Amino acid sequence: MTRGKQKIDAQRRNAEKNQKAKGSQIEARAVGLKVVCPICKVQLANEKQLTDHYGSKHPKEKPPSTSNA
Predict the structure, then answer these.
(1) 36 and 42 Cβ atoms separated by less than 8 Å
(2) Where do the C2H2-type domain residues begin and end (predicted)?
(3) Distance separating alpha carbons of residues 43 and 16, to the nearest angstrom
């Protein structure tokens, strides 16, 4: 069993070792989302998701071409 300074040092080392990576998932998600729906401004990852989104959320509208999005 450790005491005093050894215990404090061991706790500090364990805390550093178990600490999660810096940065947030929100920032990483924002980098990955490139396509935006022009109607409702939802962000999507690619054109296929945009066409699926139009089919479910905006069925009366025609999805924009890939050069537009």
Answers:
(1) yes
(2) 35-63
(3) 35
Contact 55, 66 (CB under 8 A): no
Residue 64 DSSP one-character state:
P
Longest CA span, the chain:
71
Terminal C-alpha separation, the chain: 63
**Which sign does the torsion angle of CA 32, 37, 40, 44 carry?**
negative
- Name the pLDDT band for 16 (thresholds 50, 70, 90): confident
Burial 27-38, CB ≥16 within 10 A → b, else e: eeeeeeeebebe
Angle at 7 (CA atoms; ends 19, 13), nearest 5 degrees: 25
